[in-house]
Amino acid sequence: MAGRETKQRKYSKLGTFGGVFTPSLLTILGVIMYLRFGWVVGNVGLIGTLLIVTLSTSITFLTSLSIAAVATNAPVKGGGAYFLISRSLGAEIGGAVGIPLYLAQAFSVSLYIIGFSESLTAVFPVLEPRWVSLATTLLLGFLALFSTQATIKVQYIILGLIALSLLSLFFGRPLEDSHIELWGVPASQSVSFWQVFAIFFPAVTGIMTGVNMSGDLKDPAKSIPKGTFMAVGVGFVIYMILPIILASRVDAATLVAEPLIMEQIALWGGAILLGVWGATLSSATGSLLGAPRVLQALANDKILPSWAGFFTQVTGKEKIPRAATLFTIGITLVTVYFGNLNLIAPILTMFFLTTYAVLNVTAGVETFLKSPSFRPKFKVHWVFSLLGALGCAAVMFLINSLATIAAFLVIGIIFIWLKRRKIRRTWGGLGSGILSSIIRYALLRLEKEVDAKSWRPNILVLSGSPTKRWRLIELTNDITNGNSLFTVSTILSESNVPQEKVKDYESQIMDFLANKNVHALVRVLRAPDPFTGATQLVNAYGLGQLVPNTVLLGDTKENAHLKPYSEMIRHFYKSRKNVIIVQDENNKGFRKKQVIDIWWGGLKKNGSLMIILAYLLKNSREWQQAQVNVKMVVPNSEASAGARKNLDAIFSGMRTGFGYQILESQGRDFWDILSEESAKSDLVLIGLAVPELEGEFEVYYTALKEKTQALPTKVFVLAAQEVEFDKVLH
């Protein structure tokens, strides 16, 4: 019994000929071949037509190569082009292309059915086009709901009708005495080459019809490349032979004037009408089979909202997506009833071409990055995929530039919507591979010696628990302001936390920062104590030349920790890391963030770095209203006059917009002046002495804290990096 079920399931799948070749070829040999190809030959002549066919098919062939590469890399499931794109470029890009692709295919059903109805009523005027369209939709919809196999068998009949029409044309007769028109009608009476190219190109874009049947194929990895190449090849041969027949039997002017010229020169004109009807019906059928499967795949991957989950439902041994098919039939019934899709038709073509371009990009980037997971059986050089993508983009603008822009806007809006939904996917994407390649390229080219003009802070924040010392992260985020890197680091006790828990702590901190809309790197390290861990982190953290140049940390309030804390600061300085110590007395924070005081002793080292930090803060959204006051203390009025002259020259060249204030001590203590002047400021920046020159640094640091105890939140700045910070300001 189990064997019989397996056999039935096997027979419910489609092979290369029925599942890919037939629907693709029938879409390629469509209404443009019957109704517009004579017009193409008449306008540009035999040579121009052969060139247009060759260029068009070349783009389609290059896209087929890319499809073959992606399709043979991994098992292909339902969803066709959407599946191939999303599994390589990620859910957001896949969905941004997949949703418009579904809509394009759904509305294409309406376009083909309306075209069939209009051509039928032209022969039988008693028929009403609208009711013919509705009846045709219901008939094709019933076939699609009843059986995929039966629908494909109907396409075999249509393929036979098209073959009959081509044979009738081949054995036909000349309409008049004519010679082969090499160049078409005179230039003054014809349409330009690229306009004709734009009209013809959609005729060869039917390759996606077979790809969209991926979920119904016995062996998608084998059938998609083989069937697609066969369809492109047969279509190319036919389109290269037809211009010779047309140009040798009818003059150029007649070809331009008569849309159904093939009927007049065929052996049996009725066969051409059957071919036209067959072409429109086959194209409609192919889209009616493909569109629901794309919709089903979008629902399966939860790209669509949760209410659309019923589109995942399948019925019967052929697993027909009945709910998605019924929805597509409903769209078609509504659109054919109103009957005019001319406004959106160009945009639909753009959606198809965008899909082809993205498929080329997918294959090209995967091949170029040489990702270990990309091992297609059918290998294509990335240059061919790039040419295919460029060809698709060029054709899009040639056909309709406004429709192209509109299509890009729609795709962009959908991408942003999906990005904000933060879809959790279980498959990888190219994003990480692309970023890794860019990072590798940049890292290997970073200069060993940092030029002052290109300096930016790369800050390592020793935050401990982010929730307890949030001020450190907040200040760093404002300094970097999305323009520089910073890392939030935590040192855990080796005795309390096992190594296997480190990743869990990192994930928790990442989630915490993400909820706060802070974009930072995270590093958690185990060590015997925080000071040893911080020293180890500064020694080892970084990649190549991309290492932190600045360490930002909080103060220590326990006397027992003062000595190891001071040794840690000394180690940071010797390691050529700038040091920023944030001291927040009584957890006052930054209050209104409106006044920043810089106590300045000159332009070199600490003075320049403090100016730079204040300027970076002022450029952030949180501190943009702040007033920056640069304050300098001199002994008397004579010194004040000389200092003012120097500062005028210095500050005019800085271009920071900061003002300065010169304070005369007149015998008063510097620290008393500082405490009085900055008592109401929101942030005070003070230079920190070099540890090596102060002997016992902990004694100096303890005294510094006592002298500034009355001040609000203050930042001690120590410039240690071998960078001429004054040149950053000029």
Automatic annotation (TrEMBL):
Spans traversing the lipid bilayer: 14-35, 47-72, 93-117, 129-147, 154-172, 192-215, 227-246, 266-289, 320-338, 344-368, 380-396, 402-418
Gene3D superfamilies named in the record: Amino acid/polyamine transporter I
Keywords (A to Z) from UniProt: Membrane, Transmembrane, Transmembrane helix
Residue span(s) of domain SLC12A transporter C-terminal: 471-583
Cleaved signal peptide residues: none
Topology within the bilayer: Multi-pass membrane protein
One Pfam family linked to the record: SLC12
Amino acid permease/ SLC12A domain residues: 20-457
Compartments, record wording: Membrane
Protein name: Na-K-Cl cotransporter
